[in-house]
Specification:
- The protein has 53 residues and is mainly α.
- It has one domain.
- The chain is 32% helix and 0% strand.
- It is elongated.
Length: 53
C-alpha cells in the first residue's frame, strides 16, 4: 500500500463520538447535534488542514 503522506510529514484528523455513537466519549452538545452541526465541524476541520473527519 502506498503512503498518503510523505516521509517525515504528518496528517491529523478527528472522529466525533456523535458520529460513532460512543457514549463514553460524548460531549454534552453532541446529544442534540444534527447534520448542520456536523457540516460546520467538518468545514472548520477542513479549513484548518485536517486530513480526515
Amino acid at each position: 500500500m502506498a503512503a498518503i503522506v510523505g516521509e517525515g510529514d504528518w496528517m491529523w484528523g478527528l472522529q466525533l463520538p456523535v458520529q460513532t455513537l460512543t457514549r463514553t466519549l460524548v460531549d454534552p452538545w453532541e446529544d442534540e447535534a444534527g447534520v448542520a452541526d456536523l457540516v460546520a465541524v467538518a468545514r472548520t476541520a477542513d479549513r484548518l488542514g485536517a486530513g480526515f473527519v
